[in-house]
Each structure stands twice: as C-alpha cells, then as structure tokens.
Design brief:
It is a single chain. Helix content is about 25%, strand content about 20%. With about 160 residues, it is an alpha+beta fold. The protein has a 6-stranded antiparallel beta sheet with strand order 1-2-3-4-6-5, covered by helices on one side. A hairpin with a 3-residue loop joins strand 2 and strand 3. The chain starts with 17 loop residues before the first helix and ends with a helix.
Length: about 160
C-alpha cells in the first residue's frame, strides 16, 4: 500500500478574483471592446441581463391572444393600441414595452402577479378594481396573466 503524498497546507488560501489576476499578469483584453461599452442602464425591477421584445411584435402577439381567447368580445386595434372596451388597454410606450391598464371588479390578481419576469412597474388598486403594468417580454408569466384576466372577464360578462 502506498501512502498519499502529504498536502502542503501553506499553499491554501482564498481564491483570487479576476481583478487580481489581471493586475498580476498585466493582461490587456482588447476583444472585450468588440461588444460595446456597457450603458449601466436597465429597467427598474429587472436584472441588467434581461432582454426586451420588440414592442410592435409584442403588441401583435397580445392582440392575437386577446382575439383568440375573447372570441365574443370586441377587440379593437388602432395604431399602437389594442383594447377591449371597459376591460383592458394595451399601448406601446415610447420608452419601449407595452403599458397595460386593466379595469374590472375583484380582479384575480395580487401584487406579485404584476412583478413577474418580463413585467415592470406593476400597481394594483387596494380594492382590486384596476391595475397597471408594463410588459417587456412575451413569455409564460405574461401569457398566464392575460389568461387569468381573460377568464375573469368572460366569467363576469
């Protein structure tokens, strides 16, 4: 049987960060500039890495979803706005994304529904009679929110 070599505990220590390694080796990484400078700006409530869908395409997806789900309701589309009278209005924001205004009684929402991934600036009235949110991406959470709202609208009509 052979014995394992004895470890030298004097070499143990905390790992070093990238800054330490770059300073030690004085390495220039010019290829990083090819990606452009970081703006440092991102939407409140989203990590800087979160993307944003094209607003026109997002509005088009919302319109198709509303027309398919609310077959009996009159879905109106005019310019940069889609609406169902007395219920929901979706409008393209100048800053990007889609601004939603939702009206109804006893909306089936809680504040966390309006803070899901792909959504920002969600506000729900205390009596749950109205809500506002900005949608930046079409995804599972966005679709789930619209499904719940459409189901509620169909049940209350």
């Amino acid at each position: 049987m052979s014995k394992a070599p004895k470890k030298d505990d004097s070499k143990k220590g905390l790992g070093r960060g990238l800054g330490d390694l770059l300073a030690q080796h004085d390495t220039d990484l010019p290829f990083l500039g090819a990606y452009g400078a970081a703006s440092g700006e991102h939407e409140h409530g989203l990590p800087a890495s979160a993307g944003e869908d094209d607003s026109k395409q997002l509005l088009s997806a919302i319109e198709r979803f509303l027309r398919t789900t609310l077959k009996e309701a009159k879905v109106e589309a005019e310019g940069d706005e889609v609406s169902v009278a007395g219920f929901i209005t979706a409008e393209i924001r100048k800053e990007g994304g889609i601004s939603f205004t939702i009206n109804g009684s006893n909306l089936p929402l809680v504040p966390s529904d309006l803070a899901a991934p792909g959504m920002i600036a969600g506000e729900l009235a205390d009596d749950r009679s109205s809500a506002e949110v900005t949608m930046l991406q079409w995804g599972i959470e966005s679709r789930r929110l619209l499904s719940r709202l459409c189901e509620h609208h169909l049940l209350t009509q």
